[in-house]
Fold each of these.
Amino acid sequence: MNYMKLIMTGLLAIGLLSFTACAAGKKKSKTAQEQGTGAVLTQKWMITEMRGTTKEELIKFGAFISFNKDMNGSAYMGCNGISFQYKLNKAQGISMSNVLSTMRYCEDSSPIENRFSQEIVKAEYQYEIKGHFLYLKDSKGVYIKAIRPDWD
């Protein structure tokens, strides 16, 4: 009887080791940090300039864009929550896709939100971080300029 217990314990230990080895070998999708951006891009940025919109409107609506380590992002332009996925490409390229938004209509901010949601997926942007500023640039120049909210 003791031999049977010993054999079962041994088989259980081998099974657990096999399971943990298999689980450890599974590949995860790369996070932003693993792709080399570190904590610099992956944070919330207050939008101070966006093509087709005034700085006053952006400040009034509390516009921001945020990049998370899990390659998801979010934005806010005054009314609806906007979410998207992003992908980092060679030479500081970034592209956004799968844009989703809540569907409230807000007379003042809806045009800005619609423009952002449509434009953000049209191009691959080059991102540049200079000091406390983030620039998203396309072939026409700077599309979005943002600043870290913790900067005075």
Note: Residues 15-29, 32-38 have pLDDT under 50 and may be disordered.
Amino acid sequence: MPARSVSRPDLSAIYEPISAELAEVERRLTSQMATYQGVVGQIMGHVERFAGKRMRPSVCVLTGRAMGTITTVHYDVAVVAEMIHTATLVHDDVLDSADTRRTVPTVNTRWGTEVSVLFGDYLFAKAFALCASIENREVLLTMAETAKVMCLGELLQNVNRFNFALTEDEYIDILTRKTAYLFGSCAELGVVASGGDGDARRAMRDYGTFLGVAFQIVDDHLDLFGDEPEVGKTLGTDLDGGKVTLPLLSLFQHLPADQRRDLQQFLARPDAEGKRREVVRLLDAHGLTETALDRAAVLVRDAKDRLQVLPAGPWRDALEALADYVVVRQR
């Protein structure tokens, strides 16, 4: 990835103010995942190795702590969000034909497509079984709406594969649905579960949404410019799968019509080799290697602006640092 002037924050240091709460989230998540023996238990144990940054649970806990005390509802929302996220990763790896996730083989690689799809569905079902036990109807309705929006986002992305007429607004809309909506719900429900409402609730929904869109834009950038061992998953799958992302949209806007047509025809060929290498070469030649990161940085700035409604303190500081982390991460 091209070098940037901003140093990479330490995620563990960002999470330090909620370390005890995140330990409880992990305990509850492990309890939810350790339900069955046999093959299902083996797959459960395998996907626990996908454990990543826990950003969605952390956003919920941080906004909750900024507003007041943490309740059981915060923990349940955090666990439900992480289970939904894990289910989408399992399904994404099937759609992308990815071999690795967090440096370990994907479920698809180990157990095949059918098992992966069914297991992802099972994780969704487990998440909503837990969600249904939350004694807060508003939380349940919000998470149900979130799942619906996320599925629609994934569907829209899938039906727009190799749609080179996709606009930037349509691309951002897909990202908002498939990735950012869950971030927004976690941030908003952290406030709700602490008894907050009004301006704080709306601002945290915006914070999470901006953060989530920026996160996905950086993810799309890393699929081209990342280092596979560093990122920890199969890269180049966006181009191979026909996903039209912001770096590609930026390139299309700068290429003459004939070169744009030639590139689109090349990318549409299923047997074409070196797609990632060629797109990276063209982006570099046109000075566009950091265009997506610049757009993500603007969204992060907007996200941080929304934090002014929260009381000053270590939890607001952590939310600011988490936003900064999004644009300089390399995995």
Note: The chain has one domain: 11-316.
